[in-house]
Amino acid sequence: MAEAKRPYVLGTGDDEMARLGLQHQLWGDAARAAWRAARIGPGQQWLDVGAGPGYAAFDLAQFVTGSGRVVAVDESAEFIEFAASQAAARGLAHLTAARGDALALEDSPAIRSVMEAGPGFDGAYIRWVLCFLREPERVIASLGKLVRPGGRVVIHDYFNYTSMTMAPRRPAFDRAVAATAASWRERGGDPDVMAHVPAMLAAHGFSIEHLGTHSRLARGSRSGPPESMMHWMASWWRTYTPKLVAMGKLSQADCEQLMADIARYEQDPDLFVVCPPVFEIIARRA
Ligand SMILES: C[S@@+](CC[C@H](N)C(=O)[O-])C[C@H]1O[C@@H](n2cnc3c(N)ncnc32)[C@H](O)[C@@H]1O
After folding, report:
1. Cα dihedral angle (48, 33, 279, 272), rounded to 10 degrees?
2. Which pLDDT tens digit goes with each residue over 92-120?
3. Rounded (10°) angle between helices 14-37 and 55-64
């Protein structure tokens, strides 16, 4: 692991594990469409960088089938243990979940074994990881070596994260969004990282085949539970806002106001939340 490294800002507890599961349910359609555009198929070898508990990796493993291979790397022992046990339970013996640092991918024995056996990975996926890293370009530089010529990298991550807002706007929410971005930056992350990724890819031997964005809204409901996207937003803020208060980045009064606003927005379909836009890149290794 890189020295002076601070733990992943969102934590690796059960709440984050569950939140990542819901998040994958809600955004998995975009992921699968992008992998298809990147020509994923049976027999291929894919790398999932910063795979978390492995939700995307399980899907990748089904696309490549047992004749292929998926290596899922994450720094969290808890996430990797979960991914490995789930892979076994799902009969995905060709999915290797390995603890490792995204900033030192070539040091991973699981990755090295793929590189020693052939020309490299056919594809790599990185979702919501670069925005948390101090030196995201090191990941891209590694992928320039690990992805075979003609192989592809698919990336989903943030730019303009602070455009997330309640509609109508709520000042406590806007302050919490700004505090969140500040908390990531303080640990070396960048909630605007996708602004820089195309140039990084070009510098490390990739050409951009596709650059796009996914914009989504979350609405409440008067007649029953709010739609899943609103639940995702609400569960994020219920988990992270107290952490912002504990970090001294948000006042207790703003926290309480935000909780009250969320409860109101969840119950009113005329109010909505603009989710942070997720940017998408598909790049081909020359
Ligand atoms: C928001 S989660 C995304 C997880 C997964 N990619 C997904 O889309 O569900 C960010 C992940 O990055 C991992 N991570 C952060 N820094 C890392 C590093 N230096 N090396 C490996 N994993 C890292 C965290 O442990 C966490 O699992």
Report:
1. -120
2. 999 999 999 999 999 999 999 999 999 99
3. 30
Q: Taking the alpha carbons of 32, 36, 42, 48 in that order, is the dihedral positive or negative?
A: negative
Question: ∠ CA 254-252-233 to the nearest 5 degrees?
Answer: 55
What is the rounded distance in angstroms from the CA atom of residue 186 to the CA atom of residue 209?
33
Span 14-285: which CATH code?
Answer: 3.40.50.150
Q: Locate the ligand 1 atom nearest the alpha carbon of residue 31 and give its number.
A: 8
Q: How much is the pTM?
A: 0.95
Residue extents of the structural domains in the chain: 14-285
The residue whose CB lies within 8 Å of the most ligand 1 atoms, and thus the one to mutate among 25, 46, 55, 75, is 75
Cα separation, 215 vs 275, in Å, equals 7
Which numbered atom of ligand 1 lies nearest the CA of 103? Answer: 19
For residues 274 and 218, give the distance between their C-alpha atoms in angstroms, rounded to a whole number: 7
